[in-house]
From TrEMBL, chain A:
It is a multi-pass membrane protein. Residues 19-220 form the ABC transmembrane type-1 domain. Its main location: membrane. InterPro entries: AA_ABC_transptr_permease_3TM, ArtM/GltK/GlnP/TcyL/YhdX-like, MetI-like, MetI-like_sf. Belongs to the binding-protein-dependent transport system permease family. This is L-cystine transport system permease protein tcyM. It comes from Thermobacillus xylanilyticus.
Length: 236, 248
């Protein structure tokens, strides 16, 4: 068996067809995970009665179980629940109507929410308490203080971790193949087995992921530089 | 006019304030001195509810607040009548000097941005930082940051400015510039309560000095009198230790 370098390029072109799927799964899970994670982090940091315990439990359960397990549990569990409900209510449709990628969106968002909440929480805790006191002393409401003073600084402190998190979700999105979603990795699998050129196809997938990761690193670095002008000093 | 009546505060078993009553007239500059742990900073922070008093009453001009059952609205109203200058400056780190001064005006007072900017520029020029409008706090020295902090407090045109050891965190050579600014605004008749360790400054600027120890006011009076003829043993001890030049 010999390496066929030209096939790597060929495979790359084919993998590009699956790029939108990978990007969509990553974007949805990061987006939803960020919103939910922010809510969870705020509930925990501000110790909202009752809710903060639920939030803490959520984080330990979700972080304590693998991303693949989330996907499988939601895939199996959700179909069961939906079919039972629609059957009882006589709605005349069933879980087969749910697009497979929907399971990936939902379960990866669940995964992302727990990890992201910890990133945002550490960012919130990194903001000096004097910042809040200064805002309060000016007469700002709790909401104004959070929105204008605390959160921007927390977010700025979280950028390196958030970049890391997005990269992790990008790579984790490959698990979607389990529910028959054809992402880049699944596409590589298909290309590999139909052409009997496994190494080349997987190598092409690796190159594509690496390229996207480099772009994310660059983007993260640029945001960091912009946002942290004030940290390192500098004049607007 | 500000009137504090029987303000009490404890942290757990520790009674930090054991019933403080104090009256400050409009335009008066009151310096609060005393050993560390005497409750001076806590008292100051109780006035704007950064620390919630357990009991007592606070009156600032027409606003009256019963501390033990103060509502959010009342606390908010108190904070609108006061402004604070912090030991650690606490400038908003992600905002420039000018934005720091404008923030409260725009967000709390709903002042149009142009007007807020105008006032911000005027006040920063007044504290000698007209050339630092767009500098972030990390680019400013401690003394400059504290002067921005003072401009930020002045901008709100409060009934009283609360100074919490405004020079304690500064390098010795930067203390002078901050004290000079405070002295300047004191002369303009702005009501101030200053917690300070700078006895010389207190003597210079304050119309009245309050000596606190153990969570209570031990004695108070015009600075010349209090420093030269302290009545209480506790005050004498404190002055002897801190400022031998005053000792009798």
């Amino acid at each position: 068996m010999k390496l066929d370098p030209s096939f790597i390029g060929e495979a790359l072109l084919k993998l590009l067809e699956a790029l939108p799927t990978t990007l969509a799964i990553t974007a949805v899970s990061v987006g939803c995970g960020f919103l939910a994670g922010t809510a969870i982090a705020l509930v925990r940091v501000y110790r909202v009665p009752v809710l903060h315990r639920l939030a803490a439990a959520w984080v330990t359960v979700i972080r304590g179980t693998p991303m693949l397990v989330h996907l499988l549990v939601i895939y199996a569990g959700l179909t069961l629940i939906v079919d039972t409900l629609t059957g009882r209510l006589g709605l005349g449709w069933n879980s087969a109507r749910i697009p497979m990628i929907g399971f990936a969106y939902l379960s990866f968002s669940v995964t992302a929410s727990a990890y992201c909440s910890e990133i945002i929480r550490s960012g919130l805790l990194a903001v000096d308490k004097g910042q809040r006191e200064a805002a309060q002393s000016l007469g700002m409401t709790a909401m104004q203080t959070l929105r204008r003073i605390i959160f921007p600084q927390a977010l700025a402190a979280s950028v390196p971790n958030l970049t890391n998190f997005v990269i992790g979700m990008l790579h984790g999105s490959t698990l979607a193949f389990v529910v028959s979603v054809v992402d880049i990795n699944a596409k590589a699998e298909i290309v590999a087995s139909t052409n009997w050129k496994f190494f080349e196809a997987y190598l092409a997938a690796a190159i594509l992921f690496w390229a996207m990761t480099i772009l994310l690193e660059r983007a993260g670095g640029a945001i960091e530089r912009r946002i942290n002008r004030y940290h390192k000093g500098g004049v607007a | 006019m500000i009137r504090l009546t029987d303000i009490r505060k404890s942290f757990g078993k520790d009674d930090v304030l054991r019933g403080i009553s104090l009256e400050v007239n409009k335009g008066e500059v009151v310096a609060i001195i005393g050993p560390s742990g005497s409750g001076k900073t806590t008292l100051l922070r109780c006035i704007n509810f950064l620390e919630r008093p357990d009991a007592g009453e606070i009156r600032i001009s027409d606003l009256y607040v019963n501390c033990s059952k103060a509502s959010k609205k009342e606390i908010h109203a108190l904070r609108r009548k006061t402004a604070m200058v912090f030991q650690q400056y606490n400038l908003f780190r992600h905002k420039t000097a000018l934005e720091n001064v404008m923030e409260g005006l725009v967000v709390v007072r709903k002042m149009p941005k142009d007007a807020a900017r105008e006032r911000g520029v005027r006040l920063l020029e007044k504290v000698g930082l007209g050339d630092k409008l767009d500098a972030y706090p990390s680019r400013l020295s401690g003394g400059q940051q504290q002067r921005v902090g003072i401009a930020r407090a002045l901008a709100m045109e409060p009934e009283v400015i609360l100074f919490d050891e405004p020079t304690s965190a500064l390098d010795p050579e930067l203390v002078g510039e901050v004290l000079a600014v405070i002295r300047q605004i004191a002369e303009e008749g702005i009501t101030m309560i200053i917690v300070t360790h700078e006895l010389g400054f207190a003597q210079d600027v304050a119309s009245r000095v309050v000596f606190m120890a153990g969570g209570a006011i031990v004695e108070e009076g015009p600075p010349a009198e209090l420093f030269a003829r302290p009545q209480e043993e506790r005050t004498k001890q404190f002055l002897r230790r801190l400022a031998p030049e005053y000792s009798i």
